[in-house]
Amino acid sequence: MSEPETFQTEPAQILLVEDNPGDVRLTREAFKAGRIENDLHVVSNGTEALAFLSQQGEYADVPRPDLVLLDLNLPGKDGQDVLEELKADPSLRSIPVIVLTSSRAEEDVVTSYDLHANAYLTKPVDPDEFIETVRAFEKFWFSVVRLPPEADNV
After folding, report:
1. Is the whole-model pTM more than 0.70?
2. In the chain, N or C terminus with fewer CB closer than 10 Å?
3. Strands, E assignment, 1-154
4. What torsion do the CA atoms of 51, 53, 57, 60 make, to the nearest 10 degrees?
5. Edge-to-edge strands of the sheet including 97-101?
6. Tens of pLDDT along the chain (154 residues)?
């Protein structure tokens, strides 16, 4: 009998692109309470997100994220701009992106999927529901889904 395959052997690298300190705190709290090892990296605007993803400037030595949690409502370069640029880059497009935003606008949902978001989640207003939402997608993305390897390792 062979051993069951395990998908994750080291902590998941998660990039949270979020400008609301309260939502950053809740996300950290949810991940901390979860059973899945991860390293949560946080940037607060779209320009920083693209620099992190491209490992440029102060982000030259950061790990490549396994997953991006992307707010749409960001100062300067917004989440849709980040999503469009990320998915247009052949070296980054395989990184799954979950839009995690307060926007319930149908237009934002449609545009996000048109720009190749992997999922669209609306942030619950209630903090406990927010934490439960984060835990649920963490479990799904890191226990159930098989993530692509880095492009260099293919």
Report:
1. yes
2. N
3. 12-17, 38-43, 67-70, 97-101, 119-122
4. 170
5. 38-43, 12-17, 67-70, 97-101, 119-122
6. 444 444 446 788 999 999 999 999 988 888 887 777 889 999 999 999 999 999 999 999 999 999 999 999 999 999 999 999 999 999 999 999 999 999 899 999 999 999 999 999 998 888 888 888 888 888 888 777 777 776 554 4
